[in-house]
Amino acid sequence: MERNIALIPGDGIGPDVVAEGVKVLDAVAAKFGHSFSYTEVIAGGAAIDKWGHPLPQDQLDICLRSDAVLLGALGGPKWDNVAPEIRPEKGLLGLRGGLKVYANLRPAVMWKQLKDACPLKDEIVGDGLDILVVRELTGGIYFGERGISADGKTAWDTEKYTWEEIERVVRMGFTFAQKRQKRLAVVDKANILNSSRLWRTVAEKVHEEFKDVQLDFLYIDNAAMQLVRNPRQFDVIATSNMFGDILTDEASQITGSIGMLASASLGDGTGPGLYEPIHGSAPDIAGKDIANPLATILSAAMLLRYSFALEAEAKAIEQAVHAVLDEGWRTGDIAGTKRAAVEAAGKLVGTKKMGELVVAQLNK
């Protein structure tokens, strides 16, 4: 199989972790007889520095011509004071809108090897957590009408959804739930918001096609509480852009290791998917060989699974990561309370070494 992947190293630790993701993809290609080529794209703060714009059209066009896009991280304090319309985050929103990826899949998985890093009690998390959040990505309040009054004393942002925007995300939630534990929770604020009441109406209609899936509705405030109180009650969560933004960050924290969590942003399959780790750019550790590359490596596994339909190859990466963790190898962020013991055992490693370890497992 020959495929072209657009690489967006981005800012901060983005180039560090993307480099390790490429090493792993190359190892997969060699092992399974594929051919992956790469085209680098400049976006985010790096693009602002070069062109004064976080996502020039020609850079987006490179992504559109690719078969999939692997992103490191965008942004950082360096660009906090640029004009709002050219902030690095606008580059990310531009990528999502330009690629027409309307659903963000964010697995919140507590790796059994890293259970001690979870902030919740053992009796709450049990044998582990495996939650999939399906977040609407190109609508809602982040893309709605907004403004500031002439006197600067009033500001507004509009939450607006169409039936179609909701249906395609809810349908994706049902589809994944059907393949997992057959439970879908739709999170909204239907006691207050008209847009949330439409989410419920659409979900109930789509549910008629997925009768084998249990459908529950939760208000966002209750859902946030339940994620901490009893996270194992959740299988798949489908929700709006803003609520998904909040819940996915919370879910990442209860797993205890934000550096381990991957994500995929998908559309209708006619264009490339966008894959990225959920951590930020962490510019304070950029270039220091400290960052954890495993979230990017696992994002590469999702890329193989969802964009290229290479399930065996995706599982091979995930199994290699499991094996590395089983052997006790850790970057600083996932060493947790056992850091001293990990370091004493010679198992505390940096970005490049962790990538090499995953490649070594793939090559066995």
Write up this protein.
- The chain is built from 14 helices and twelve strands.
- The chain starts with a strand and ends with a helix.
- It is an alpha/beta fold and 364 residues long.
- Strand 1 (2-10), helix 1 and strand 2 (35-40) form a beta-alpha-beta unit.
- The protein is 43% helix and 18% strand.
- The strands form two sheets. Strands 2-1-3-12-11-4-5-10-8-9 form a ten-stranded mixed β-sheet, sandwiched between helices. It has a two-stranded antiparallel sheet with strand order 6-7.
- It has helices at 14-32, 45-51, 57-65, 88-99, 122-125, 163-179, 194-207, 220-229, 241-254, 294-306, 311-326, 332-335, 339-344, 351-362; strands spanning 2-10, 35-40, 68-73, 103-109, 130-136, 146-148, 155-157, 183-188, 214-219, 236-239, 262-266, 273-277.
- Helix 1 (14-32) packs across helix 10 and helix 8 packs parallel to helix 9 (241-254).
